[in-house]
Structures are given as C-alpha cells and as structure tokens.
C-alpha cells in the first residue's frame, strides 16, 4: 500500500525528515518526505504491515525536539517507487517555519563532551540535531547554515561528512562544529581549554567573570562567596533584586531549593529555565544573592560551555544577566566589553555571534500537582508557536510596556517573541522593532492588522500607529490578559476573569488593575473591581509603597491618617502629612483600582517595606512573609452586590493597620491579607458567574504570580464548583498581553 501522511506540530528544524528517512529505509519503504508550510508531508509505500509499523515508529521514535500535534493519513495510488528520498521544500517564494528554540545540550553530546577519547572532548560548542543553539543564531530563512551566525565557519571534512549523512546524529545540524573548524572560547590571551581553566580559576579566586552564553552575556561569580556577590551587586547597581544561580547538577540544585517533580522536570528539560522555588534552610549561598527573598532562582547548565565551567568551578555560581541595573542584557561582543567594563574582572567569550538577544526564561512552582507558572517565556521556548482557537488574519500585536513582548499571528498560529524588557528607551525600542521585522520574515507573516494597548503613550502603541496601511485594533489591557488565558487553553469564552495587576489603562480612562471582567475573545464588560483610591504622586506611588499605605488609610478613615508606628522610622512626619493631604484632596493623585497597589500598601503598613528598589518587590516580600506564617484568619473584605461588584478593601486596610499598631508581626498581617483577597475574589467571581450563567473563571494579571494567592483563590473557586483557568504556557504578567491582543484582534477583525 502507499500512504500520504501529514504531520503537524514542531516538526521542522528538529531532525524530523532524517528521522522519517531512517525509519523508512530500515523498513525498505519507497517514497519521499518534505517540509511545507504546515509541517511535514510524506508518502511511503511497501507491504501493508511494514507501512503500519512505519507509522507507529514515526511517533514512538520521534526526535527529542519534535512535538507531533496532529498526524493524518490517507491511502493513495501505488507508484512502484523503491528508494526513499528527502525532497526540497514544496513551496515557492514563501519561506518556511523552520526555526526551533535553543535547546539544552543532549545526553549524547554531553557524553562526548566528557569522553577523553572523543574528538569533541571538552569542546564548548558541541551540538547535534537534537540540541544546541537555534533561534539565537538565525539571521534569516530558510534555516540553513549560510543564514546563521555559523556562516563564517567552514565545516572540516569530518564535520561535513556527518552533516551530509542521513544516518548521522548531525545530519543537517546547522551549528555542527568541532575543535578543528568551529568557534573557539577565549579569555584574555588564553584560548580553548586554557580559557576555560583560567575562567574557573578566576571564579575560585572570587572574581566576577562575564560569560558569553547562548542568548547573551551573564555575570558570574561563586554563589557562596559573600565578598564576590557583594562586589557584583555594588558594581551592577542592583540593590536587592535576587540573582539567579546556576547549579552544576540536579543534586546541587536540590541542596539549594525545595523541588517537586514538576520543578525537577523543568530544571532538567531542554528549555532549561530558571526555576523559582522555596529556599532550603541552610542553603549555602551568600546573603547578598537574594536578600529578604524566601525563593531562590536556580537553573542547570544548558550549553556545553556552561557544563565545562560549572564542572571546573565545582560549585554553584551566580549567573545574572550581563547588564547594569535594568538595561537589556548585553549580547554583542563590543557592547558587552564596553558596558560590562568595571563590573566584570574577566571576560570568557567566544567567536560565534549571537543574532538575537534572548534572556533566560523563568518559571515558578505552584502547589503540588498544579502546573508551574511561566513568569518569563524567552530562551528555550521562543519562537515555538502557540495555537489560536480561531483564525487570525496576518497580524502583529504590540503588547504593553513593561515585560514587553510582541506577537505575530496568522490563521491558527501565533508566535510570541522573546522577552524585550521594559519598553521605555531607545535600546529596547530598537530590539522590539528588529524583533518584529525578524519574525515577519521567519514566519512569513505580512500583517494586515496591528493590535495595540489603549494607552496612547506606550512606545508599543506609538509603533502601532506608525505602521502604515494596517487595520488598527485597540485592546483594553485587562481584556487582553483575559483573552490570552482563554486562548492558550484553546477556549473562546465567555468566562469571568479576575484580572489583578499593577496598572493598565481602563476603558473609562482611569487606571485599572483589580478587575472582574465578563467577556469572550471579542468583547468584555467590567462586572466589578477593587474599590478605587488615589495614587498620590502618580508613578512615585509605585516606587514608594508607603504612599499607598497613606492613600488607603486616608480613604478608609475618611480623614488625614496619622503616621503609623511601623513607618515612623522610615518616613518623616511632614512628608507623610503632605502626602495625606494630597490624597485627601485628590491632587496629583490619579485614581486606580490596582490590586498590586493594595498589596504595596499593606506591605508598607506591616513595616516590611516603605520604598521599593525594584518592581514588585513589596508584593514579593509580603508573599514571602505570608508563606512563613502559614494559613491565618482573613481580614474583612466585603464584596458588594450592586450592579457593579465592588471589593471594598477599606475595612481590610483598617484591620491591617490595627494589627500593625498592636505590634502584630508582619507575617501574620501578610497572611491575613492573602486569605482575605483570595476569599473575596472567589466570592465576587461566584456572584458574577451566577448573574451571567457562567461556570468558567480565569485568574490572570501580574498579581497572580503570587503562589499563595493563585493557589488559594483556585481552591476556593473549585470548592464553589467553578472551573478555573490559570496561565500555563504564557505568563500571568504583561508578557502575555501581545498574545491576548492577537486573540482579540482575530475575533474582531473582519
Ligand atoms: Zn546533541
Ligand atoms: Zn569540524
Ligand atoms: Fe497587566
């Protein structure tokens, strides 16, 4: 018999055609295989039982980086073909979606790396079809060596032979290289193994080493060296934001953090994200690694260079992004030299250029059994496509401002770009523009629609307005959060969404952030929200949580509040009074229903933090405190049942203030707030769901990066008999906004 098979999913650029070839050849089948715009298309003919076995083995023995989503087959007429061939792509003009994500070194390559008899022994750029750099080295399509940053390295005869042999693990592995023909590691005058030895010894001596990795430069030092970590913090101008760690292996990671099976699977998976998990008591890390943080972020080596460095250094390293303060991570060699000069004592670098800057991805454990939260989706995940639950015209969605990403889409597929960072300066704007142009080429999307946030001042919105000739679709921020979560679960709604974050422009022109929405992908209504208060001083109130404590107390008391004892040491009485007057009078105090700001206010009242040194710090510390107290009785947080369901946090803040005045400790106050918000949110969702006859709820927005809050609210909703959708493949934070905009635009475009 002869069959035609169509295979969809992640099947291009991952060694799928050679896999088909090998299986077909071993069964002596005739036919062909090729890539086209939908995936892999093949025909195979031979005896019935051999063809049946062929189909089974295609799945069972699929290459590690492949993910088969759909496989359909039909019987076609015999052609009497006896050889099996790999054909060139079946399409003209339009380039193919051949680019996979960067993948961690596979077990076979790792074995070669540490095998003294292998020709790639200790070669820091070993890779094969199943692993290695991909997205970060691609300059254009088709994905072929001349259009990667490996173009400058001519393969030696032995590498070429592997590359051309369909039976070899390196058949068509574009970054294939060896010590004779490939890139070289360098540190100062030392090259190759000498460079690695010198780097390891510099780390042991307590120096800071800039390390060029897959998506950019890291700054590394020993994690247990108090002085080295302190020096790195001071030079980087990073006050308290935790540093990520790289542990030599899983055993070493387990000694640092508490890991469940889901976290261990992520740590050792090919994406190799940073996993945030509770710090183990007695973990051997310097205090300056993550001051006042109950979690540590840990990852495992993901490139051969990291494997060698960690093995040689023999200890966990700090591996933080190579940048100053909040700038984007350095990835160009000259740029890194310039910007990291004075921070790094040494540079361990190499001559394989990085084309696209890609930060480490970050995931966070939830309660046991629940899928972890993907907080930052970048290296290892990008540019894998996500499905859309409806057909999209070719479109680009521009995202929000902080933790920015963009998204390209057509038909049922969406490609969310790498983490760009905070889109607030020329450098991030340039990577945003370049990234969109790059993705348009890689995935052959010629947008006819551009989706954007309603905020007119976001650089992403201005970019959208500059794109000529496209249909503009403005999407409300929290609606985009709701749509993103529905769409990633393959749903179109309607559903009730509790969308809690720091800020987003509302449909009424005020700043939203504690929203109960009812909506589907096309439209929404605001069914409820957190009681709004003023942001005294606007953006300053975001950096200074004590201002939110003042504003909430003023709102709750209905008069100018006295300076709480817990803030007396941190804030001068006259400043407090000035802000209290400002809040009462509504001067320079835009109104917000932000849930993030409520958490800030209570963190300040509890005496945890009057001013923040990085975004989300107060809330993160409040969560850490709550975790240490365990479950506690909730504060009052009444839920109104008017036309709009209002969560009234005034009594909550008063009760927290009384606890603080009585000298109750911060963990108790924190835990009581978490319990109150979880319970009130669930109650509000139940009210809205009943009114609208709905049974599905969505929890999203940056506030739901909080593990306690997401787990407790989910449990309460499930107890009430509602379904709960939580982001899994994208972040609850603004990294998912672009994909949500794409889903809304697809639903609205005609
Ligand atoms: Zn490999
Ligand atoms: Zn070679
Ligand atoms: Fe948001």
Report what the structure shows:
With 750 residues, the protein is of the alpha/beta class. The chain has four domains: 85 residues, Alpha-Beta Plaits, CATH 3.30.70.100; 273 residues, DHBP synthase (Alpha-Beta Complex); 122 residues, Nucleotidyltransferase, domain 5 (2-Layer Sandwich), CATH 3.30.420.360; 198 residues, 2-Layer Sandwich (Nucleotidyltransferase, domain 5). The chain contains 23 helices and 28 strands. The strands form five sheets. The protein has an eleven-stranded mixed sheet with strand order 7-6-14-8-9-13-10-12-11-15-16, with helices on both faces. Helix 22 links the parallel strand 27 and strand 28. The longest helix is centred in the last third of the chain and has 27 residues. The two termini are 44 Å apart. The mean pLDDT is 94. The site of one zinc ion has 7 residues, from helix 3.
What profile does the largest beta sheet have? 11 strands, mixed
The general outline is globular
Q: Quickly count the domains.
A: 4
CATH topology of the largest domain: DHBP synthase
């Amino acid at each position: 018999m002869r069959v035609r098979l169509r295979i969809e999913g992640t099947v291009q650029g991952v060694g799928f055609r050679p896999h088909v070839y090998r299986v077909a050849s071993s069964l002596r089948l005739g036919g062909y295989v090729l890539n086209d715009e939908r995936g892999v298309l093949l025909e195979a003919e031979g005896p019935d039982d051999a063809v049946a076995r062929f189909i089974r083995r295609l799945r069972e023995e699929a290459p590690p980086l492949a993910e088969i989503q759909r496989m359909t087959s039909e019987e076609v007429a015999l052609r009497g073909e006896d050889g099996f061939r790999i054909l060139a792509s079946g399409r003209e003009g339009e380039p193919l979606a051949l680019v996979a994500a960067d993948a961690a070194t596979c077990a076979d390559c790792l074995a070669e790396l540490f095998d003294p008899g292998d020709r790639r022994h200790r070669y820091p750029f070993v890779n094969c079809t199943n692993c290695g750099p991909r997205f970060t080295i691609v300059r254009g399509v088709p994905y072929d060596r001349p259009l990667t940053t490996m173009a400058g390295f001519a393969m030696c005869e032995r590498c070429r032979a592997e590359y051309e042999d369909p039976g070899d693990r390196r058949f068509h592995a574009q970054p294939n290289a060896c010590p004779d023909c490939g890139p070289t590691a360098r540190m100062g005058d030392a090259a190759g193994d000498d460079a690695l030895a010198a780097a390891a010894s510099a780390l042991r001596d307590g120096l800071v080493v800039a390390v060029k990795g897959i998506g950019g430069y890291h700054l590394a030092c020993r994690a247990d060296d108090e002085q080295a970590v302190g020096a790195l913090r001071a030079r980087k101008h990073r006050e308290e934001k935790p540093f990520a760690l790289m542990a030599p292996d899983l055993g070493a990671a387990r000694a640092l953090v508490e890991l469940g099976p889901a976290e261990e699977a992520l740590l050792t998976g090919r994406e190799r994200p940073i996993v945030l998990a509770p710090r183990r008591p007695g973990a051997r890390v310097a205090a300056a690694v993550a001051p006042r943080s109950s979690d540590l972020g840990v990852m495992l080596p993901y490139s051969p260079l990291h494997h060698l460095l960690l093995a040689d250094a023999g200890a966990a390293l700090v591996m933080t992004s190579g940048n100053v303060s909040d700038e984007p991570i350095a990835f160009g060699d000259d740029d890194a030299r310039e910007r990291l000069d004075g921070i790094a004592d040494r540079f361990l670098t190499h001559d394989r250029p990085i084309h696209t800057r890609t930060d480490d991805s970050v995931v966070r454990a939830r309660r046991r059994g629940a899928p972890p939260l993907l907080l930052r989706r970048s290296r290892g995940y990008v540019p894998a496509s996500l499905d859309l639950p409806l057909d999209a015209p070719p479109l680009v969605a521009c995202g929000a401002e902080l933790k920015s990403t963009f998204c390209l889409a057509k038909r049922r597929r969406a490609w969310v770009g790498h983490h760009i960072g905070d889109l607030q300066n020329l450098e991030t704007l340039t990577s945003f523009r370049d990234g969109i142009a790059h993705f348009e080429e890689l995935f052959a999307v010629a947008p006819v629609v551009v989706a954007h946030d309603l905020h007119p001042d976001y650089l992403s919105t201005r970019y959208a307005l500059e794109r000529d000739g496209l249909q503009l679709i403005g999407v409300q921020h929290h609606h985009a959060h709701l749509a993103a979560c529905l769409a990633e679960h393959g749903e179109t709604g309607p559903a009730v969404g509790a969308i809690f974050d720091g800020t987003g422009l509302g449909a009424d022109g005020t700043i939203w952030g504690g929203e109960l929405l009812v909506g589907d992908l096309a439209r929404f209504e605001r069914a409820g929200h957190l009681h709004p208060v003023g942001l005294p001083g606007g953006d300053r109130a975001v950096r200074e949580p004590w201002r939110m404590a003042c504003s909430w107390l003023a709102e709750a008391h209905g008069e100018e509040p006295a300076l709480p004892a817990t803030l007396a040491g941190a804030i001068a009485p006259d400043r407090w009074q000035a802000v209290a007057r400002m809040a009462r009078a509504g001067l320079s105090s835009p109104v917000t229903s932000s849930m993030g700001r409520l958490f800030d206010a209570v963190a300040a009242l509890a005496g945890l933090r009057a001013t923040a040194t990085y975004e989300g710090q107060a809330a993160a510390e409040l969560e850490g405190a709550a975790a240490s107290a365990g479950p506690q009785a909730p504060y009052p947080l009444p839920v109104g049942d008017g036309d709009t369901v209002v969560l009234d946090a005034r009594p909550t803040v008063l009760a927290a203030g009384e606890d603080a005045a009585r000298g109750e400790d911060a963990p108790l106050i924190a835990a009581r707030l978490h319990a109150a918000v979880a319970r009130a949110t669930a109650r509000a969702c139940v009210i809205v769901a009943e009114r609208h006859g709905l049974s599905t709820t969505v929890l999203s927005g940056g506030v739901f990066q909080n593990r306690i809050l997401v787990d407790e609210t989910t449990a309460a909703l499930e107890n009430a008999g509602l379904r709960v959708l939580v982001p899994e493949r994208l972040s609850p934070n603004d990294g998912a906004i672009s994909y949500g905009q794409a889903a809304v635009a697809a639903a609205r475009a005609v």
